TrEMBL record:
Keyword field: Cell membrane, Membrane, Receptor, Transducer, Transmembrane, Transmembrane helix
Membrane topology: Multi-pass membrane protein
Transmembrane segments: 6-27, 39-61, 108-133, 145-162, 219-237
Descriptive protein name: Gustatory receptor
Length: 241
């Protein structure tokens, strides 16, 4: 597993370096500037920092999803064995996971907001350049299309694992309700199953940017709508001038 993640990280860095080198070459040729000037104007260091933050967020969110999958696997086994000790252990782990997501939302709220904002602005800029370019310079067209691809990749690296984690959380809630229904009332098993169900409902967490917005698949439609609106405004502004 570690070898797989190392290879994946290496491939992502190779793709990033190739994209940056191509972008620098395009800007050098278009603006008639040196590679160093293109490096500074292109804010490569800032883009690389954002690239690393996206990978970090993806890794953390995937870990949350895998932990919830492990809990769901344990619940399925508990459903057939009715082990009280394992049920208590699952309750504690679920509560800790909920608190961990709260910490994640607080720590990375502004990073996520800035990444979403930057992706939206970059998308508007790329679409505007592609529209006004009229295929005059093929290198610039390819560069902007590649940037759009990287924007889609950044958003997918954050939103797709979040949606997967949300599905595992919903599955945990369904399994806890099923275990409670199967348990006999006025027994120790039923008491712990009730606590499990209450915890599943009370510690059900969603990924948010510190409650500024909920991060889920609906966010993609919001971004597309905002990008389309500002792209139309940019086109109208350029046509006037």
């Amino acid at each position: 597993m570690q070898t797989y993640h190392f290879r994946l990280l290496l491939i992502l860095h190779i793709v990033f370096v190739v994209s940056v080198i191509y972008a620098l070459t395009v800007w050098c040729h278009l603006l008639k500037i040196t590679v160093l000037q293109s490096f500074i104007l292109g804010s490569v260091i800032d883009i690389y920092y954002e690239f690393l933050v996206v990978i970090l967020l993806n890794t953390l969110i995937n870990n949350f999803g895998s932990r919830y999958r492990d809990l769901n696997t344990k619940l399925i086994k508990i459903r057939s064995t009715s082990s009280l000790n394992e049920l208590r252990h699952v309750v504690q782990n679920y509560r800790l996971l909920g608190e961990s997501i709260d910490l994640f939302n607080e720590m990375f709220a502004f990073q996520i907001l800035l990444i979403i904002l930057h992706c939206g602005l970059q998308a508007v800029g790329c679409l505007d350049i592609i529209y006004t370019l009229n295929l005059q310079f093929e290198g610039m067209l390819i560069h902007n299309l590649s940037v759009l691809g990287l924007i889609i990749w950044c958003l997918a690296m954050i939103i797709i694992p979040i949606e997967s984690s949300h599905r595992e959380i919903e599955k945990f809630l369904e399994l806890s309700c099923e275990i409670q229904h199967r348990a006999n009332e006025d027994t120790k098993e039923w008491e712990i199953a009730t606590i499990l169900k209450d915890y599943a409902e009370n510690f059900k967490r969603e990924f948010t940017a510190d409650e500024f917005l909920k991060i889920n698949k609906r966010l993609i439609l919001s971004i597309i709508g905002s990008v389309t609106t500002y792209f139309i405004i940019a086109v109208q502004f350029n046509s006037i001038h």
